Amino acid sequence: MGKASKSLKAVDPVWHRIGEEARLAVADEQLLGGLVHSSILHHATFEAALAYRITLKLSSPEMSAQTLRQLVDDAFASDATLGVAARADLVAVYERDPACHRLMQPLLYFKGFQAVQAYRVGHWLYSQGRHDLAYFVQMRVSEVFGVDIHPAAKIGQGIMIDHAHSIVIGETAVVGDNVSMLHSVTLGGTGKEDDDRHPKIGDGVLIGAGAHVLGNITIGHCSRIAAGSVVLSDVPPCKTVAGVPAKIVGEAGCAQPSVTMDQLLSESI
To answer: Which EC class, in a word (predicted)?
Structure first.
């Protein structure tokens, strides 16, 4: 067991707070008792609770819950960074989504958070050379959550995908840390070439609903992509782009758009 895993088990404020919220939720609504106990209060660690949720959502007649749970547990036990990234994602959703009022909500209810954590398990499998299992996880995430992320894609931490319907992220895409995106975003290629063909998204980027970023292009850190835009060329850092095809329409307007989540194009930019 790595040092990161040991320290998280010793002092884990995120998991402690989730437990407190869960007990209050059961006290307020007893009909949720079974769900909350099985998903949160029954587990000793955040990783165990997350593994349970992923297994519950993705198991099927093609792969039993027992088999899938062992697989997910192995991933978390082998790579402590999966739990670290999950906590960062959870806090990101809580801080950026005005509809999220408790840390336990993404774990229980938000498919964007759950889909990203399942992708992380698939990515771990892919990095271990277990490609077919990784593709199985990708398939189930797409079927269950409507989020299609290739297991070879590289995604940082502190990721918030709001609503998370019809998200597509291609094989050679790279997404930095502290990125936020809305529903119906595509990070796709532009042809049939089997090479580095997908976008590279910098840290702190905000991608609006329905935006399509296509090709092996670079989106500079802390930039904004307006809703419905089609981005076909590089975007410099700290800029706002909009339109079809997208063009620079001004500065980003703040230090880190992905955190403020301000999607309005004001006259000042």
So the answer is: transferase
